[in-house]
Specification:
single chain; alpha+beta; 21-stranded mixed β-sheet; 21 strands; 49% strand
Length: 476
């Protein structure tokens, strides 16, 4: 018995010595230029991109073969798409012995991911060369900490960046290459991400949280998505499907009870108004190119506000001036509320500059403003777009083409208590710089402003008319 134990201890000691020598040898080999070059080639082939390992490498064998990389940079088609401060990669034993490395665990620290859409609509992340593996891989556990994710649109100039991101992806699989895109072959049972700060060109939010699943076949479901936006809690969900050359998306969001002043400030405008509004929307779109996606957009966007105060502009005083001169730009009144109510979510913002420059002093009380629009095949249709002040109501009808940002048969009207038009102005051109047609004074009224007030019925209303507006905004 003692002899057997002695032999066993000798064998164990020999095995341990071999392991120690192997670890020491591997550690020494990892510092050589030859191993560094081989790992760089292997990483590039595995990702289908150009990988540069600019930092040192460290090798380990327990609990299974692993390698730690430092200062990693990735390029695709000559464009930088990301970098990693530190990456720990662990492999499974059996596939590695068959010279077919298979990942088991990936831990990334300080990653910087850049997702850039070129002018041709192609993402720089799309592989320039196919991956080398010939079979399905997984499951893989992925963890990332203190990372930055940035998206840029080369054509439109827009960008969004999330900072301080931590994420975990559970049971990720990559199916066998079969001519499908990488996104169509990736799946995972669950993923969670938290980012401290989200910024864009004229927007800043914080505390972004996303939960997601990818059951396979190019299907990704992000739900729920929460974010502190405009000082209020925003919720959303996003669903994407990639099948062949076609892409389809559905999205919905809600931002209730937001301060108007905070919206204007966060979007980079002077806070000329205060009050509270609700924002919501749901959209669906599909296609391959950016234009295809815009052309196919269908859904709705809603902007509801009440008790809003506008500083530097007395709307009712301007109406009185209209009564005296029969000359007035209704577009100035609608610019701040009617158009941009839908414009904020549709990202087709009205230019505030002219409105602010024309401020003549005073205060306006907007009791209610609604901008409910329906979107069909890339065209925004006004469903219920109106606002009310102490003594007036204004409404809008018409369309906006998302592919060109052009207004299509847009009419703004001052309406009486029955919704009959008192005066109209027609707009065309770009939403950012609309052109006004000559105003059409439908009713020439003498006397005080009571004839324009919503509370009164004038002689023309009693004779009957074709209502211009019959929506939810009632006379105050």
């Amino acid at each position: 018995m003692r002899r057997a134990l002695k032999i066993l201890s000798i064998v164990a000691g020999a095995v341990l010595a071999v392991l120690v020598l192997a670890v020491v040898g591997l550690a020494a080999y990892a510092r050589t230029d030859a191993f560094h070059a081989k790992m760089q080639v292997a990483a590039s082939r595995g990702m289908g991109m150009q990988v540069s390992l600019d930092g040192p490498l460290r090798i380990g064998l327990l609990p299974s073969p692993n390698i730690t990389l430092y200062d990693v940079h990735v390029q695709n088609r000559g464009v930088a798409v990301g970098s990693v401060d530190e990456a720990y990669v662990r492999y499974r034993w059996a596939p590695l012995l068959r010279r077919d490395p298979e990942l088991e665990t990936v831990v990334v620290k300080g990653a910087h991911l850049l997702i850039r859409k070129g002018s041709d609509g192609t993402l720089d992340l799309v592989r320039s060369t196919p991956p080398v593996h010939k079979r399905a891989h997984g499951p893989i556990e992925i963890t990332a900490s203190d990372s930055v994710i940035r998206y840029e649109d080369a054509k439109g100039g827009g960008w969004v960046e999330a900072q301080g991101c931590d994420a975990k992806v559970h049971q990720a699989y990559s199916e066998k290459p079969d001519q499908r895109r990488a996104l169509e072959r990736v799946s995972f049972s669950g993923a969670d991400m938290h980012c401290k700060i989200v910024t864009a060109s004229k927007f800043a939010g914080k505390d972004l949280k996303i939960s997601a699943v990818a059951p396979g076949k190019g299907v990704f479901d992000l739900q729920p998505i929460t974010l502190q936006a405009f000082g209020a809690p925003a919720t959303a969900h996003f669903h994407a499907e990639f099948r062949g050359d076609d892409e389809s998306y559905t999205a919905a969001m809600s931002v209730p009870d937001v301060q108007v002043a905070r919206i204007l400030t966060d979007l980079g405008f002077r806070p000329v108004a205060d009050g509270r509004v609700d924002l919501s929307g749901d959209l669906a779109y599909h296609g391959e190119s950016h234009r295809d996606l815009l052309t196919s957009v269908t859904g709705s966007v809603a902007f509801h506000g009440s008790g809003i105060t506008l500083q530097g502009y007395d709307l009712d005083k301007e109406m009185k001036r209209f009564e005296r001169t029969q000359r007035f730009d209704l577009a100035d009144l609608a610019g701040l509320f009617v158009f941009n109510g839908a414009g904020m979510l549709a990202t087709k913002g009205y230019d505030y500059g002219e409105l602010i420059r024309k401020r003549r002093g005073g205060v306006s009380h907007v009791h209610e403003v609604i901008a409910d629009v329906q979107i069909s095949q890339g065209v925004v249709h006004t469903h219920d777009v109106a606002m009310s002040t102490d003594t007036h109501r204004m409404a809008a009808q018409g369309n906006l083409k998302l592919t060109t940002d052009d207004l299509d048969h847009v009419t703004l009207a001052l309406v009486d208590a029955r919704g009959c038009p008192i005066a109209e102005e027609k707009l065309d051109g770009s939403i950012r710089k609309p052109r006004l047609a000559k105003g059409n004074v439908l009713h020439t009224l003498a006397g005080p402003v009571r004839r324009l007030a919503n509370k009164a019925e004038d002689i023309f209303t009693k004779k009957g008319c074709t209502p211009f507006y019959d929506g939810a905004v009632r006379p105050y």
